[in-house]
Amino acid sequence: MPFESAGARFRTPAWLIAGAALAFTLGTQTLSPGPLRDSSAYLVALLPGLLTALVFRSVLAGVAVTLAPMYFVIGFMLRGLPAHSPMTALDRVWPLEPAWMLVYGSLYVFVVILPFLVIRERQLGHRTLRAYIAVMLPAYAGFLLYPTTAPSHGVLPSTGFAAWTLRLAYDIDTPANCFPSLHVAYAFVAAQACYRVHRGVGIAALIWATLIALSTLFTKQHYIVDVAAGAAMGGAASFVFLRSGPRRGTNEHGRGAPRRAAYAVAFYVLMVAAFGVTYLTRG
User: Fold this and answer.
1) In Å, what is the CA distance from 55 to each residue of 24, 183, 212, 232?
2) Residues β-bridged to residue 148
3) Helical H runs in the chain?
4) What pLDDT does 43 receive?
5) Gap between the Cα atoms of 169 and 219, Å rounded
6) Is 283 helix (H, G, I), strand (E, B) or coil?
C-alpha cells in the first residue's frame, strides 16, 4: 500500500524500492548517452511502474511512476522542431537571480517526499495520486500541441554556488515543455494534499508552493503564462480530487504531520549540504 491505514506500519523497504525504481528511470532518461536518450527509452519506465504497482498493490502508484518520465521523453521527441516562446513584456524585464535555485531545487523533495511523509490515510493518498495524474495528462497534451522553449537566461555568473547549481539544472532539464508548468501544478497539488492532513503544514506548504512558482521565473525556467496555467491546473485538480473528506488535524496522523514535514525539510538541507561539499571539492 502506498499509504498506511490506521494501525498499519509504514513500509520503509517498499518505499526504498519504489524510490530507487523512479530514480533509475529518471536517471536513464536524462543522463544515459546514445539511443536511450530517444523516445525508445520510455520502455525502460515500464519496469519501475510495474514494480511500483506490485510493491504497493496500487495501480494508481504504478501509473504515476510510469507517466512521470514522459516529461523528458516528450522533450527529446520535440528536439529540433519549431517551438513557441510566449514572452510577455514582464518576462523580458524579470531578472535572472541564481540564488532562487535554492527554492527551485526543493521542488522534487516538496512534490515527492513531503506529501508521502505527511499523508498517512490511504484514501487521501489515492486521491492525491489521482490529482497528480490529472495534471500530467493535460500538461503532456499541451507540450505536444504547443511546443515551447525556455526563456533565454543570458550569461550566468561564472562563480558562486547558486550559479553552479543553476547551471546543473540547465544541463539536466529539457529546455522544452514549458507550457503549462507541470512543476508548478505538482507543487500546488502537494500543498493542498498536505492541507487536508494539517492546516498549519498546509498553509506553510502553500506559501512554499508560491515561492516555487516564483523561482521558476527567477531561474528563467518558465514564462509567466506557464506559471499561471500550471497554478490553475493544480488548483483545478485539487478542487476535483482533494476538496472532499474531513481534514485530519485532530487525529494521530494530523498531530504528527509537522514532525514528518520537518523530516522532508531536513532531507533537503542535507541534500543542499551535499551539493555544497561537491561544489567546494570539485576539481
Assistant:
1) 16, 26, 31, 33
2) 84
3) 12-31, 46-56, 59-67, 70-77, 89-93, 101-104, 107-108, 114-118, 122-145, 161-172, 182-197, 199-218, 224-242, 252-255, 257-281
4) 56
5) 10
6) coil
The pLDDT value recorded for residue 234 is 97
**DSSP designation for 110:** I
Predicted structure pTM score: 0.82
Q: Is 95 helix (H, G, I), strand (E, B) or coil?
A: coil
Give me 41's grid cell.
527509452
Structural contact between residues 257 and 194, judged by C-beta atoms closer than 8 angstroms:
yes
Residue (of 269, 270, 263) closest to 114 by Cα position: 263
Contact yes or no for 177/71 (Cβ under 8 A): yes
For 6, other C-beta atoms within 10 Å of its C-beta total: 10
- Residue ranges, CATH 1.20.144, the chain: 83-281
Fold of 83-281: Vanadium-containing Chloroperoxidase; domain 1 (1.20.144)
Q: How many Cα atoms within 13 Å fall on the side-chain side of residue 181?
A: 32
| Cβ-Cβ contacts under 8 Å for 84 (sequence gap 6 or more) | 146, 147, 148, 149, 179
- Taking only Cα atoms into account, the Rg of the chain, rounded to an integer number of angstroms, comes to 19
Residues of the chain under the 50 pLDDT cut? 1-11, 14, 34-39, 249-250
Write the single-letter amino acid at 1. Answer: M
Torsion angles phi and psi, residue 84, rounded to 5: -90, 160
Helix axes 182-197, 224-242, angle to 10 degrees: 30
